[in-house]
Amino acid sequence: MLRAQGRAVHQCDSGWVPVFVDQEQSISLMSVGFLLESPDEAVVWRGPKKNALIKQFVADVAWGQLDYLVVDTPPGTSDEHMAAVEALRPYSPLGALVVTTPQAVSVGDVRRELTFCRKTGLQVVGVVENMSGFVCPHCAECTNVFSRGGGEVLASLAGVPFLGSVPLDPELTRSLEEGQDFIRDFPKSPAFPALFSIAQKVMSEAPARLS
Amino acid sequence: MEEVPQGCPGTGSAQAGRGASCQGCPNQRLCASGAGAAPDPAIEEIKEKMKTVKHKILVLSGKGGVGKSTFSAHLAHGLAEDENTQVALLDIDICGPSIPKIMGLEGEQVHQSGSGWSPVFVEDNLGVMSVGFLLSSPDDAVIWRGPKKNGMIKQFLRDVDWGEVDYLIVDTPPGTSDEHLSAVQYLSAAHIDGAVIITTPQEVSLQDVRKEINFCHKVKLPIIGVVENMSVFICPKCKKETQIFPPTTGGAEVMCQDLKIPLLGKVPLDPHIGKSCDKGQSFLMDAPDSPATFAYRSIIQRIQEFCGHHPPKEEHFLSS
């Protein structure tokens, strides 16, 4: 999604060198994807092996000076999530952004994620509702493709801030596929103000919430 | 089995109990004695249990959020519309068990009988099992590592009294990890008809599906075919089509042609699907005239045809 497929990971004295995805070197990335021989290679690992790699990603990558380390996780409340929390806890501050879609089935799962956060002492920065409505490009009718309301329900159930809703935008998915810079190329997209506002909230709330 | 140490060589490996990382592990003596290398007796027990189950179908996806559980639920509903067909739906997404909600069974509990755990019945001919039924609150999180999840899956396959079943559908979490390996391993002496793999049209999803397909090849799991979900959106107002998830590399159709795997069908995005799932109702009943319903029914028929043409026989899959 960040135009970094096929790049290699190198070693330096302080560890693995993360892959920079932009010219200005403001965003670096580490992923198991860089360690695979081919993009179709399946990573068929049980928990302990996944845990070991996650610990390495935290401890053995030469991240350098960072303002934000964003950790993308798979769905669930299992090995990867426990490994990430354990590996990152010594390096506080640490918080969670919880993402849901609007429908009740999604809320039903994601509320368990909030319990995970509570049980592991992970502060929740807020809830984001993704895929929130679609504006038809032909007639401008907004349809709630994946139902509605889930994000706010979840935030109020857990007593955490609701950071905002991101609408469905085919241009967003297309630009992720083609490795484009969505924010640069589609500033007029309905998703852009939503994403921008959420980022602003995270940046302003995070230091206060996490200290 | 308790927590495994980092660097665990695996209980079945030649180094089991003997490696450097085995020091201090509570299972070290057990592994060193060779007990871990013996096949799990549960595999034979599950083979016996599965003798009353004619067809077993795994529903897989590489990615989360592509509609796998929605599909599994509606495959079950569709098959069970014939009251002479006995259908069982097993949800092995231990951390995110959405099947109870989608099937309208939230809050139901599992009962024990002399012959094992009883599935929860939606209809007389449609029984469901999920870890969701074992949780007392909708907020309960199942924060388990791999070995404990595997134990649960073993119990589901061995201890649930499924009875005489025509189709057992196994809904899985996304990915290629513990749950998938365990399901294939524990069913290795029974016969799995095959896997149905769900995707959405975009390359980011297909990339993960290709990994899923490689997983199936690796564990010798036949592939029934691929379903492309959220294929196209039809605006309820102007009826024009839009591709919300653009198939930038040709979608599942091109991928299936390249890999010579059947494309079972494409399901359009219908906002009523989500609503039916939220209400725990069958979308096929709620919206019988939707193009999505026609797509589902055609896909279900193709799956039945596959199972009919590939009768169960003795086959041993590669265990992990």
TrEMBL record, chain A:
GO molecular function: 4 iron, 4 sulfur cluster binding; ATP binding; ATP-dependent FeS chaperone activity; metal ion binding
Keywords linked to the UniProt accession: 4Fe-4S, ATP-binding, Iron, Iron-sulfur, Metal-binding, Nucleotide-binding
Pfam (any one): ParA
Entry-linked InterPro entries: Mrp-like_CS (IPR000808), Mrp/NBP35_ATP-bd (IPR019591), P-loop_NTPase (IPR027417), YlxH/NBP35 (IPR033756)
GO cellular component: cytosol
Any GO BP: iron-sulfur cluster assembly
Residues forming coiled coils: none
Keyword flag Transit peptide: no
Top-level taxon of origin: Eukaryota
PANTHER family the record matches: CYTOSOLIC FE-S CLUSTER ASSEMBLY FACTOR NUBP2, NUCLEOTIDE-BINDING PROTEIN NBP35 YEAST -RELATED
Listed name of the protein: Cytosolic Fe-S cluster assembly factor NUBP2 isoform X6
TrEMBL record, chain B:
Cofactor: binding comment: Binds 4 [4Fe-4S] clusters per heterotetramer. Contains two stable clusters in the N-termini of NUBP1 and two labile, bridging clusters between subunits of the NUBP1-NUBP2 heterotetramer.
Cofactor(s) listed: [4Fe-4S] cluster
Record bears the keyword 4Fe-4S: yes
UniProt entry keywords in alphabetical sequence: 4Fe-4S, ATP-binding, Cytoplasm, Iron, Iron-sulfur, Metal-binding, Nucleotide-binding
GO molecular function: 4 iron, 4 sulfur cluster binding; ATP binding; ATP-dependent FeS chaperone activity; metal ion binding
Main location group: cytoplasm
Binding sites annotated in the UniProt record for [4Fe-4S] cluster 2: C235, C238
Protein name (record): Cytosolic Fe-S cluster assembly factor NUBP1
Organism: Neomonachus schauinslandi (Hawaiian monk seal)
Gene encoding the protein: NUBP1
